[in-house]
Amino acid sequence: MSRHKSSMLFMIAVVLTMAVGLSACAPAAPTAPQPAPAAESPAQPVSVRLWHMEQPPHRVQRIQQLIDEFNAANPGIVVSQEPQNWGEIYTKAPAAVAAGNAPELLFAIPDFTPILKDLGKVQPMEDLVAEMDALYSFYPTAVEPYAYDGHTWALPLYNMAHSLWYRPSVFAEAGVEPPKTWEEWEAAVEALTRDGQYGIGLPANKHLYTDQVVYDFMVNAGAEEIYNPDGTLRFNNPQTVEAYDFYSKLYRFSPPDSPNWTWGEAEACFANRTCAMILQFTVITTYDTQAEGDPNDLGVIAIPHSPNVEESGTIAYSNAVMLLTDDPAKQEAAKEFLRFLLKPGNYGRFLNMEPGLFLPVTEAGSQDETFWNDPLAVKYRSQIETMIANARNGRLFGFTNGNTFPSIAAISAQNLLAQTLQMVVIDGKPAAEAVAAGQALMEEAIGE
Amino acid sequence: MDHASSFSSNDTTQKKRRATASRNRLGGYLFVAPLLLWLAATILYPLFSAIALSMQDIRIIGTAGDFVGLDNYARILGSESFWQAFGRSAIWVVGNAVVQTLAAFTAALILNQRFPGQQFARIWIILSWIVPTVVVVIIWRWLLSSSGVINYLLMAIGLTAEPVGFFGAPTTAATSVVLINAWRWFPFMAVTLLAALQSIPQELYEAAAVDGATAVQRFWRITLPLLQPVLFVLGLVGTLLSFNVFDVIWLLTGGGPSNATTTLPVLIYDTAFTRYRLSQAAAISVLSGLALLIFALLFIRFMAPKQEDES
Known about the structure:
Strand content of chain B: under 5%
Oligomer: heterodimer
Largest sheet of chain A: 6 strands, mixed
Number of helices of chain B: 13
CATH class of chain B: Mainly Alpha
Order of helices and strands of chain B: HHHHHHHHHHHHH
Helix content of chain B: over 70%
């Protein structure tokens, strides 16, 4: 080959390699946080951007309805929403903060808040929490996961809890009673598995949904504590091993594509009758719009428990909203919007953006007529009451028994509960070995 | 004209030529300057930024970090997950290359024949290439789900008694992802090969036919050698592009199950944005870039088509 052509090809290779390789692979370099934009002039309305992760169109529509009402009643403030995705927010929010483009309000769950707090952008909200508590009386368990390091870092908005969903007619046909213990549960799942129907739909994806379902099993095995009181990990214990072992037993009766599931696939599996039961926050909307919609044939019960545990528990946690602006005008505008949201009459409609999924975090909210008067809430009232009852015995990993361990954020962000499950159900490791490996991964995640 | 004046005239002419050449050169530099500046901004800046980032201990994007030298590289090179992802990337690239090349060659040879609907087929084939990745992923996830069409057909014809979890086990997930990506990209290769096939003079085939060459001989002795330059470029560019595919894998499997489809780009994303180890992710990026550079140089050294005028 001539020298000229060699040089040309070399140049092409270098340019292609750099362009395709490094520029595609390299994460964006960090940028210095931008100073907060100056407060807008009094003549202009104060703008407040809200990021939330309630993407389904009907939820976006309900939030928009409330925003429109608020904006109309408050000419000096313009609230706008920008729906995000739970799958991406752990990446996008820190990047937005770094780029100086963070929203003023961002929805949160307890293990997401520490990540943003560590970036120094989250504003303390104990004043607004106290104000709302005086008016509407927060359930203490809703506030506790957000209160640490001397402040309350988010305002609770709604509660969520897993339950076991099934169809009474399908159980009756198989001669199965709703299970209360693990022994009854395993027998029921086996009896319900037949041609075209899986006894249960259990996820095995490395995803938040799997983390949540795994924790359901852990709570019901008496392994709800991941940390010792001194902050060291106690994930590797016999109760956790029992939980993973039992999960793998039931997983054998789950659809083969469940290692790729998130919440939606589980709901679809239940709605199209492929799964006889699933663990989910709610299936009410899907069941009502895409399945039979017969409230008498939608069963919901507490998640069965191990013989070593006295009563059923579940994963439950409050979703909240963080304030990410240090501009006083924007702070006040954002707080005004939150006062509007929690006000009875508005709050019930806010919760019913997904009827039967979002449960009140205030005593006033649980009595709000607009919560109970929604047509779906009327139709499925008994199911919603059962969900609220189940939520009373709720737990959340890293936030149990009054302790709060912010380092759980690293464990949760990496879905290490789910990764440990994959070692058992995908790689075929014994539960004890997988749980030991899982604890090592957790120690690495929080220790580096 | 005496000798001296002739010399002086030549000297003046040469000076004029040099001045013209110098002006032309300057003009050339001015023409390419915007492109070079653009390349510097879009390639060199990210490159040096990634290298600088890889020598710090930044965890979350936007936070500060200390200089740690080559610590991240030492950690990455000693990490099992890096070498596993590297191995998966190699399998991914080879798998895609084999499947795409076979499919593209077959399609190009068929489309190079005259048959009714040839024009329609040539347009139809590029559909999978122009459809957005997210749409491709949704279609395939639906087709391959346990209640999807493919499982229905497999059970209907008795090949399986129960639905197959295509994304549920490491081997089937890796195979499915390779096949889906190859299905998405082979039309690009097929169209390029088709264009190259059409540039081969028909006289060569006619002469070979007169000499009694069979179809297979014509393929090996005429088609394949004359496609060498195009195959070389496709091999180089295709490998580099294929190595860096992230979207299809992430959207189909998220790197699972049990990391079975975690290639290097997925590992980089995971390290940066779920493990929050930005500097370590940058180190993996730099190592990946180096691996690709070495591959490109070796590929050019050993696979470049031989030139007839080679001295």
